[in-house]
Amino acid sequence: MDQFAVKVFVRLRPSVLDPAGEATKSASIKLGAEGIKSLRIGKMIEVKIEGNGENEVREKIDLLCDRLFANTVIEDYEYSLEKL
Amino acid sequence: MDNFTVGVVVFPGSNCDRDVSWALEGCLDIRTKYLWHESSDLSNVDAIVLPGGFSYGDYLRCGAIARFSPLINALDDFVKSGRRVLGICNGFQILTESGFLPGALTTNKNLNFICDDVELDIVSSKGGWFNDGVEKQTIKLPIAHGEGRYHCDSDTLKKLVDNELISLRYKNNPNGSSFDIAGITNEKGNVLGLMPHPERACDETIGGTDGLFTLKSLILK
């Protein structure tokens, strides 16, 4: 069995308003940071997972992302995978 | 109807379960039974309410974890049998997360947790959940949510409109919901999800009775 470290990024779809991102953008500007054109907040989920090779692990992660980690009505996801 | 029993689902973090039970039993004389979320035996109930609250602490997303409980797994057959399911607030979030209703509920546009009475237009009485407009076309119900902004893509919205699945719309949209949507049904009409709390409007002494009709509708066939 191989072990993999997976980082899943879940983001609101571009078409979905992100009020928390807007509020943080506003605070960033008040802090004096200049030039911020856009600020959106997402989630990062770290998973350590075992499987027989990368393809099997990708299948598992795809299922997790699609059914649990992200609500694909409003969110997109992507992930990176590193063999340990 | 004497033995008609409404199952009120209790998740870890539900906090309107007792309110729903009180409203049904005390105001409408309808028998209720609490259903722990790990139960999958729905044979002794005739309708189900998924109450408001913060199931599983709203971890990940509101309703996302509750969706995997044994009870929600058993709900599919229950819904297909035509029996009624009412999801209030967190219950509505669970119904969208689990795919019984389309769309999703996410953070209010103004980021506030909004606790207020709102005016609602009855758009469709599909499933008979609301007055058909003969008596009232507008009702007032309390809302209490931080994540009640209904969102769906334009194709889904068109389907909701074309099939008269939108039950309630906010008169003054408090949370940024698409198309002012406050409540929707499935195509068959036996599943209703709404953000407002009908169980908190069942007695004049607590501010109104506009929620009675919806709770009473649970006994409709």
From TrEMBL, chain A:
<dbReference type="InterPro" id="IPR036604">
    <property type="entry name" value="PurS-like_sf"/>
</dbReference>
<dbReference type="GO" id="GO:0005524">
    <property type="term" value="F:ATP binding"/>
</dbReference>
<keyword id="KW-0067">ATP-binding</keyword>
<protein>
    <recommendedName>
        <fullName>Phosphoribosylformylglycinamidine synthase subunit PurS</fullName>
        <ecNumber>6.3.5.3</ecNumber>
    </recommendedName>
</protein>
<comment type="pathway">
    <text>Purine metabolism; IMP biosynthesis via de novo pathway; 5-amino-1-(5-phospho-D-ribosyl)imidazole from N(2)-formyl-N(1)-(5-phospho-D-ribosyl)glycinamide: step 1/2.</text>
</comment>
<comment type="similarity">
    <text>Belongs to the PurS family.</text>
</comment>
<dbReference type="GO" id="GO:0004642">
    <property type="term" value="F:phosphoribosylformylglycinamidine synthase activity"/>
</dbReference>
<dbReference type="GO" id="GO:0006189">
    <property type="term" value="P:'de novo' IMP biosynthetic process"/>
</dbReference>
<keyword id="KW-0436">Ligase</keyword>
<keyword id="KW-0547">Nucleotide-binding</keyword>
<comment type="function">
    <text>Part of the phosphoribosylformylglycinamidine synthase complex involved in the purines biosynthetic pathway. Catalyzes the ATP-dependent conversion of formylglycinamide ribonucleotide (FGAR) and glutamine to yield formylglycinamidine ribonucleotide (FGAM) and glutamate. The FGAM synthase complex is composed of three subunits. PurQ produces an ammonia molecule by converting glutamine to glutamate. PurL transfers the ammonia molecule to FGAR to form FGAM in an ATP-dependent manner.</text>
</comment>
<keyword id="KW-0963">Cytoplasm</keyword>
<dbReference type="Pfam" id="PF02700">
    <property type="entry name" value="PurS"/>
</dbReference>
<comment type="subunit">
    <text>Part of the FGAM synthase complex composed of 1 PurL, 1 PurQ and 2 PurS subunits.</text>
</comment>
<dbReference type="InterPro" id="IPR003850">
    <property type="entry name" value="PurS"/>
</dbReference>
<keyword id="KW-0658">Purine biosynthesis</keyword>
<dbReference type="GO" id="GO:0005737">
    <property type="term" value="C:cytoplasm"/>
</dbReference>
UniProtKB/TrEMBL annotation, chain B:
<comment type="function">
    <text>Part of the phosphoribosylformylglycinamidine synthase complex involved in the purines biosynthetic pathway. Catalyzes the ATP-dependent conversion of formylglycinamide ribonucleotide (FGAR) and glutamine to yield formylglycinamidine ribonucleotide (FGAM) and glutamate. The FGAM synthase complex is composed of three subunits. PurQ produces an ammonia molecule by converting glutamine to glutamate. PurL transfers the ammonia molecule to FGAR to form FGAM in an ATP-dependent manner.</text>
</comment>
<keyword id="KW-0658">Purine biosynthesis</keyword>
<comment type="subunit">
    <text>Part of the FGAM synthase complex composed of 1 PurL, 1 PurQ and 2 PurS subunits.</text>
</comment>
<keyword id="KW-0378">Hydrolase</keyword>
<protein>
    <recommendedName>
        <fullName>Phosphoribosylformylglycinamidine synthase subunit PurQ</fullName>
        <ecNumber>6.3.5.3</ecNumber>
        <ecNumber>3.5.1.2</ecNumber>
    </recommendedName>
</protein>
<keyword id="KW-0315">Glutamine amidotransferase</keyword>
<dbReference type="GO" id="GO:0004359">
    <property type="term" value="F:glutaminase activity"/>
</dbReference>
<dbReference type="InterPro" id="IPR029062">
    <property type="entry name" value="Class_I_gatase-like"/>
</dbReference>
<dbReference type="InterPro" id="IPR010075">
    <property type="entry name" value="PRibForGlyAmidine_synth_PurQ"/>
</dbReference>
<keyword id="KW-0436">Ligase</keyword>
<dbReference type="Pfam" id="PF13507">
    <property type="entry name" value="GATase_5"/>
</dbReference>
<keyword id="KW-0963">Cytoplasm</keyword>
<feature type="active site">
    <location>
        <position position="197"/>
    </location>
</feature>
<keyword id="KW-0547">Nucleotide-binding</keyword>
<dbReference type="GO" id="GO:0006189">
    <property type="term" value="P:'de novo' IMP biosynthetic process"/>
</dbReference>
<comment type="pathway">
    <text>Purine metabolism; IMP biosynthesis via de novo pathway; 5-amino-1-(5-phospho-D-ribosyl)imidazole from N(2)-formyl-N(1)-(5-phospho-D-ribosyl)glycinamide: step 1/2.</text>
</comment>
<dbReference type="GO" id="GO:0004642">
    <property type="term" value="F:phosphoribosylformylglycinamidine synthase activity"/>
</dbReference>
<feature type="active site" description="Nucleophile">
    <location>
        <position position="89"/>
    </location>
</feature>
<dbReference type="GO" id="GO:0005524">
    <property type="term" value="F:ATP binding"/>
</dbReference>
<keyword id="KW-0067">ATP-binding</keyword>
<dbReference type="GO" id="GO:0005737">
    <property type="term" value="C:cytoplasm"/>
</dbReference>
<feature type="active site">
    <location>
        <position position="199"/>
    </location>
</feature>
